[in-house]
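Researcher: I'd like a candidate sequence for this fold, 413 residues long. If you have to choose between options at a position, lean toward the conservative one.
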């Protein structure tokens, strides 16, 4: 039976959103939470970008230590040999990557300014894929940017060349949110049938259809005989109008009438009970409130006001609720301390620091260890420029060497 797997791109596409961003420590916590949720792969950054190097290498160390596992950590780069060369030089333990090339006539003509034609795009992509494997890559996906506006015959040619070079998946990028659920179903099914390779859906929300296109594209891929992969971001954060929201996509696959019948199976590792936690953390880290009507995690997702609805929900929640709030990790009371509150900041002292960590039930073996973690916590506050969460404080205490590396940034000029 074919499955639908999740590849989250919050740490690559989400952080490219205008006016938004994440600190490297926050990106690390996102990876850990995505792993808890059961996401198959996190596209965790740009290995050719120098300010990402320490964060990327430290996260790969965490993966080797079993902290971020079994989720795969994948880099993103252009499908050209130069990017591959520098990426594996800077991040030598990288095992997975997606290599991206523009494939539409619009982009080939206007982005490349006549310097590269269709054949050059294919040739560079093939060389890049082969080079990545020679560097030690274990799995490479190939991206067709603006696939939804790419001639289908050229898209098939491009995908077959990628497959022959060793690519394990093709990423179909609806870069401008141009597809609708009907067109993407037909195009993805045709591509899967002709190329015989798993397809990734990467849908943007410019027309408000990112989730709909993602799940119907996945359906088309499975109907075409291949496993499907869906790109998501937490809370739909992404360039312009955003990407397919992670939680909404999971809910659609599990509960919609056309997908929830068992034929289109979601990866069994996905644990939706972590949805509430990860949505709240991303909202805090990006400093973007969760919309009140956000599926599953919005404040009104399970709220009823009208008499008819309230009466019906109280008699049987299935009257007006398609799924249970407990399924998303909601329902537990949240305690807000309204009295004395000691926090760890960039100017904290050892006594306040120990008070905070004591409440988190974190003990230190020695005064020296406590002072070391305190110094890291101070730097973390400078690094993030906002208060640390309990999960961030625990991470620093449990993995101080990786935390130090993640927060270390030396300009290379």
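Model: Candidate sequence:
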């Amino acid at each position: 039976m074919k499955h639908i797997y999740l590849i989250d791109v919050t740490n690559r596409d989400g952080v490219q959103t205008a006016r938004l961003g994440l600190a490297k420590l926050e990106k690390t916590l996102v990876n850990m939470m995505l792993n808890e949720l059961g996401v198959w792969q996190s596209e965790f950054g740009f290995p050719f970008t120098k300010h990402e190097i320490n964060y990327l290498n430290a996260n790969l160390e965490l993966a080797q230590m079993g902290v971020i596992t079994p989720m795969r950590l994948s880099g993103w780069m252009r499908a050209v040999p130069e990017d591959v060369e520098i990426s594996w030089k800077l991040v030598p333990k990288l095992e997975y990557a997606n290599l991206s090339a523009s494939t539409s006539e619009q982009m080939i003509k206007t982005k490349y300014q006549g310097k590269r034609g269709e054949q050059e795009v294919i040739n560079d992509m093939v060389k890049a894929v082969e080079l990545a494997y020679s560097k030690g890559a274990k799995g490479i996906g190939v991206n067709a940017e603006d696939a939804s506006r790419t001639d289908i015959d050229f898209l098939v040619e491009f995908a077959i060349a990628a497959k022959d070079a060793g690519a394990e998946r093709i990423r179909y990028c609806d870069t401008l949110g141009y597809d609708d659920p009907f067109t993407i179903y037909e195009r993805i099914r045709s591509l899967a049938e002709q190329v015989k390779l798993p397809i990734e859906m990467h849908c943007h929300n410019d027309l408000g259809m990112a989730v709909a296109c993602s799940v119907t594209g996945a359906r088309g891929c499975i109907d075409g005989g291949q496993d499907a992969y869906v790109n998501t971001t937490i809370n739909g954060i992404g360039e312009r109008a955003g990407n397919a929201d992670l939680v909404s996509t999971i809910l659609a696959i599990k509960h919609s009438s056309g997908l929830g019948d068992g034929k289109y199976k979601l990866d069994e590792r996905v644990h939706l009970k972590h949805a509430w936690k990860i949505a709240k953390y991303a909202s805090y880290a990006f400093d973007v409130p969760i919309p009140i009507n956000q599926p599953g995690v919005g404040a009104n997702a399970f709220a009823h006001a009208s008499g008819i609805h309230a009466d019906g929900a109280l008699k049987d929640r299935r009257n007006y609720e398609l799924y249970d709030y407990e399924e998303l990790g909601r329902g537990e009371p949240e305690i807000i301390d309204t009295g004395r509150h000691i926090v760890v900041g960039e100017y904290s002292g050892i006594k306040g620091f120990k008070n905070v960590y004591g409440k988190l039930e974190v003990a230190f073996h020695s005064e020296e260890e406590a002072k070391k973690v305190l110094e890291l916590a101070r730097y973390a506050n400078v690094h993030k420029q906002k208060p640390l969460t309990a999960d961030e404080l625990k991470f620093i205490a449990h993995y101080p060497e990786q935390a130090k590396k993640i927060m270390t940034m030396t300009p290379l000029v």
